[in-house]
Specification:
2 copies of one chain form a homodimer. Chain A has about 350 residues and is an alpha/beta fold. Helix content of chain A is about 40%, strand content about 15%. In chain A, helix 7 links the parallel strand 5 and strand 6.
Chain lengths: ~350, ~350
Amino acid sequence: MAYERDNIRQMQGYKSGEQPENADTVKLNTNENPWPPAPAVGEAIRHFDAGQLRRYPQPTADRFRRLAADLHQVHPENIIATRGGDELLRLVITTFVDPYQPIGMTEPTYSLYPVLAQIQDCPVVKVPLGDEWSLPDDFAHRMNKAGVKLSLLVNPHAPSGSLLGMEAIRKLARDIDSVLLIDEAYVDFVDPDVAYDSASLVEEFDNLIVLRTLSKGYSLAGLRFGYGIGAESLIRPMLEKTRDSYNLDAISQRIAEAALEHRDHAAWSWKQVRTERERLRSALTALGLTVPESQANFLLATVYKAGPSANDLYEYLKEHGVLVRYFDQPGLADKLRITVGTPEDNEQLITHLQRALAPG
Amino acid sequence: MAYERDNIRQMQGYKSGEQPENADTVKLNTNENPWPPAPAVGEAIRHFDAGQLRRYPQPTADRFRRLAADLHQVHPENIIATRGGDELLRLVITTFVDPYQPIGMTEPTYSLYPVLAQIQDCPVVKVPLGDEWSLPDDFAHRMNKAGVKLSLLVNPHAPSGSLLGMEAIRKLARDIDSVLLIDEAYVDFVDPDVAYDSASLVEEFDNLIVLRTLSKGYSLAGLRFGYGIGAESLIRPMLEKTRDSYNLDAISQRIAEAALEHRDHAAWSWKQVRTERERLRSALTALGLTVPESQANFLLATVYKAGPSANDLYEYLKEHGVLVRYFDQPGLADKLRITVGTPEDNEQLITHLQRALAPG
């Protein structure tokens, strides 16, 4: 007998990017930072006293929350620490959206969002993006009209890397009459000249939650540590009620603290990624692919119509030990999402692409 | 404006036991193992390569699942690894219980259960335990009659430490017509003579899930690692659909593997706890408290009616640096739950109790 709820039985789970066992694979498929985490992270691990693991961890990661609050110039009450951004996404749904109430998002977007909506048995309202991945001007209006309780926007956008500016976020927070989450998984790679700092808006709006993660910017995808920034009235019910009582273990708290305390190392990696991003974009463009500017650590490249298909290129690269991401979805089937790697990674990608695209 | 769902607004969050900052406190309030984890745990931490944290972890903790499957003589498909037992409890509710459908449990029980039910907006069906914390014979019948979709039983029972035997579990799994979760957070402390092994029942019943945790038995409360054992048809939807995509970080997977691989160390601690449990029980009884046998790593002591109240004793002990647990609840208000500590911890408890109970 099957005991699953109907909505669970009917849904498909989230498919994460391939994680090859082979360490030689050039892995440009899951937007991981190509540089290792700060040396202080290794120190924190080596000096961790295993004996303290017999006791429960500090339940709310308060030391981390203080560090994050200082970084964003908000109060610790404006911060919730979570197991990666994923836990925060689940918590906002659990806390603010009743089953059967709609959740709004763009199309395309981070493919986990509709999966989480289905788990809560919530319909999804999808607004297609316009040319060059622009958000339609009437997005807020459409969210309100559909009665959504939560809007999820990834910014910089995935999979395109385009960025909504501060004023656009401010306008959305003002115009949307329910909770708005801005998922800033890739924000650390934004060019500093853009002066983007949406966290500063949480004191202005009681419906805005900003999601941050250490996965990409701090080279800690394997750690599962993120946080949310928002008005205390939004943070408190997640912190005190809906969060698993001890959601963050003692070691990961210590590591996350070390990463934030040694942010200069992470900032160095962001700079490297930005430099490589431009170099890679030029090289891909020279090969005939169309590659818009990106503010994230990946590029979304449209393949040349007369040449091999995106799927063929994906397969060719995989055969030659280079993994990129291919989405068999409307609007994306002629594109490849390519994570910016080290100069050596990118060089290998380019070499293999040159061969694949060379006139036969 | 408050954006919380009504059920979240109305509920109280789970209150975890006090975690004093003072390392000198004799901490007998949260059922932590008084002995440190296996030396192999420290080794696993020291030898962990921080560089690998930049990549996502293995999503389903497959190596751990294989080790746990070997231990329980089931298949890896019968195992899901989770962040402590708490995540498994949340997942069974998310996966098998629609909002507004009832969840069954005993009274008293682990105080987290009703909190998790409220988060899913599920009513709770509570069946009071009988004399000496016995489960009423008609428990299964009452679950079925109330239409519960999930029954949660902690065994050994918390906060009493009493144990339902294998035959009772078998009968419950057979008679209850929905999912039955047996929460074995404390099972490692059961006397081996009892020959209790409910995991062996999961191949017999497609509605039985057994919860295990490394928190108590393996001295790893700070790690947040547990697992579920059940029929593949119960495990799969949680593993592939409702679980956060990367619920377990790379370091905790490595540590949990080391703990299971060096189970002999943990087993040594279980033996110590059992010996101390009996010694402590005798000493408390000699002081006039009523203390039933316990198969867990704690004792539930009823205070002497003519003496100080349980709450007064709790406060007295706390003032003197000894933390125990007091529940201000019907049926428990004249009792203290005392975790079995090291011989030195227990000695300090007894000394202070003697003074508190000495004729004034």
